[in-house]
Amino acid sequence: MADTKIEAVLFDLGETLIDFGRADTNELLQKGAELSYKFLESISQEVGSFKSYCRYSLLHLRIRYIFSNIIDRDFDVLALLKKIGARRCVKLSERQWQDLAWQWYKPLRQIASVETDIVQTLAALKKSGLKLGIVSNTFINKCTLEKHLAEFGILDFFDELMYSYEFKFRKPHSRIFAAAAKRIGCPNSNIMFVGDRVNKDILPALKAGMHPVLKTAYTNKGKKLPKGAWQIDKLCELPQLLGKINSGLENKAI
């Protein structure tokens, strides 16, 4: 039997590394529109009335989101904001465009949280010699996500950050798991994949020959844990679970 020692851990982002919980998407978008409009006003950009700006921006965001689900491929919201802005004669530097994207994201940032000991957990994993990476289905640009990770003090722990909008496919497609393994530089059998969704994280990781770990979250409430996968309630349980796997213990629960 091939050596299955874990050499790398890949994490999903939302409800795995960062907890957002249940949120009202319409409310978040409305608040994002308000903050982004105020930002544009503060840098003397003529964008018309808020009502017009809000209606126009939200319409295009929603249409693009619906289309992405139809084609099963994520888009880059920063690129979309630039297109929307160009049609309204908004002219910004690259840094200002990134700041604008952050204004749209702020309402989500305000409800986000991480485990209180996440820095210690990730530090322990790195100290043990593991490579760490993120594989996330998202249309949010990396400039925004990585700013958020840096605010929590965890960005520098990750060797690779892979966002689906940068690919022509997304989870649960097998190609993104293959791409992730290649980027992290380990065979699938030596990779642990930690996520919160059974259908998009656990089952495809299991099929790819990785070691899937389901983190308890509202997104998997009532879902059955697939055979061959493990489950944890908190990320701080990972070092102990890794020790069991790497010691050859096949117990599926801790």
Structural class assignment:
alpha/beta
* Nearest-integer average pLDDT: 94
Biggest β-sheet: strands ordered side by side in the sheet:
3-2-1-4-5-6
- CATH-defined topology of the largest domain: Rossmann fold
What is the 3D shape? elongated
CATH superfamily of the largest domain: HAD superfamily/HAD-like
Would you mind describing this structure in some detail?
The chain is an alpha/beta fold and 254 residues long. The chain has two domains: 8-20 and 114-246, Rossmann fold (3-Layer(aba) Sandwich); 25-111. The protein is built from nine helices and six strands. It has helices spanning 25-42, 50-71, 77-87, 94-111, 118-127, 142-151, 174-184, 198-207, 238-246; strands at 8-11, 131-136, 160-163, 191-195, 211-215, 230-232. A six-stranded parallel sheet has the order 3-2-1-4-5-6, with helices on both faces. Strand 4, helix 8 and strand 5 (211-215) form a beta-alpha-beta unit. The two termini are 24 Å apart. The model is unreliable at 249-254 (pLDDT under 50).
